[in-house]
Amino acid sequence: MRCLIAGVTLLWTPLAFAAELGAPGEGPTVEMHGFVSQGAIKTTGNNYLLGTSKRGSVEFAEIGANFSGQLTDRLRVGFQLFASKLGSNGNFNVKADWFSLDYRWRDWLGLRAGRVKLPFGLYNDTSDIDAARVPVLLPQSVYPLADRDFLLAQTGFELYGFINLSSAGALEYRLYGGTIYIPLSGQAPGPVQVTAFNADYVAGGRLFWDTPVDGLRVGASVQALHLDVAVNYAFPMTTAETVTADVPALLWVGSLEYAAHDWLVAVEYSRWRSKVVDSSNAMLLPNMATVSERAYSLVAYRVRRWFQPGVYYSRMIRNVDMTEGAGAAQHDLAGTLRFDINTFWLVKLEGHFMHGTGGVDPGLNGGAARDTLPNNWGVFLLKTTAYF
Amino acid sequence: MLTRRSIGRWAAAALVLTAAFTWAPGNPGPAPVSASGGTYRVVVNPANPVTVVDRKFLSDVFLKKSTRWDGGDSARPVDLRPDAVARQQFSDDVLRRSVGAVKAYWQQLVFSGRDVPPPEVDTDEQVIRYVLRFTGGVGYVSGAANLDRVKPISIK
Questions:
Q1: B interface mutation test: which of A77, A263, A301, A342 has the most B CBs within 10 A?
Q2: pTM of this prediction?
Q3: CA B121, B62, A63: angle at the middle one, nearest 5?
């Protein structure tokens, strides 16, 4: 709550803070930006994203503030503090969302060091920025909110660049390597609890081709990571046991985006492969591989400066080798109305028709198996964000 | 599960959709903008040898994808405020995005730690003063602005 108050206070501080501190472009400059988001969620049928969504919840808020300084023509530094609340996740604990020093030697080669947002697909690195997108919830097949801590940022190094290909367009690339920190808080209560989740490494890259057609870009991203996990099994009438295993994973996504004038069209297709190997108890935690399939298609159009509707269809299959049952997949048809009240404030209304429960967390639904949960259900969201 | 055939259908549908949007009537193609005509003019510092600039390059400069002129000077773009008519026309013609879409683009970069937008100023005179301050300065002003002190350039 203190963070929320601090965030609101910052937001309504005179807008001089949002501008450069100092005359534009004269010597080192520092900029401050921030946002405050508050949402409400109501679902029918199943609890989704948080354990109280069926009865309606406002435990859906985000606050961020960042500072960045242009020290020389080529060198920038910056950091962002972020706090959020999504059900039992977040609890407004302030953390360093990203921090980096950024040396852009040439347009085609720059280096970032620090905690850097992961470039995966079109929107992963901006997935917690409500103002930067049309939907309240990005397609959860490719950008699952529940996996935010896995996928959002890595601590390490990144090379990046922009290569102008003249009439053939341009290439934009990012290559990174480092590690990720995965907090264990926020697990739904139950007999199975993850007690350790350490990433040995995360590495990957993203390449986009800005085609000669204005606003059309296509590309691909890949990410490899290796996790060491420990899971505690404490079933009634049995002795609790902790099982350890290695989990290597490989994620990739192919992307197409058309963003020109007032149109936005995005299509992405992704596969995530993860394996459990070297399990210390294969009866409880079997050695096995899983490949999930994820895809969506999104269209939005800015009808007026203040009004932008959008729709998307998103589909996720948990395991391509096990496609039977309501819990094997989730189809999500979503519609959003975005209203930009002014340059600093927006409101969104959103509805989802869901078919299948593949993306539902059983832990939020009394531990019921996904196949036994209601198969057709809905999600309704209201969210407002102020930013500068 | 998506089969190869269904993936193909998705891809084909996306391409058709994109092509339809790209070449739809009313979606303006490259708009010739001359330094002496039109409702806005692009201006640079008089010390900048550039007289004609490629539209795509200019767009990349204002989106900070390209940060240097051919001569190596740091490019320093400056924007007018979002409700300025010249800003809206420049955005549509050169960036090929609405001002709202450009602001969304900058939100993505600002809050992911990648960059910050060009400074925004209120008047043509402030644009001119900014451009005069830096050799690599580049901005746009309304057609009525006095260009005696800066160098107007053409867009190809």
A1: A263
A2: 0.85
A3: 70
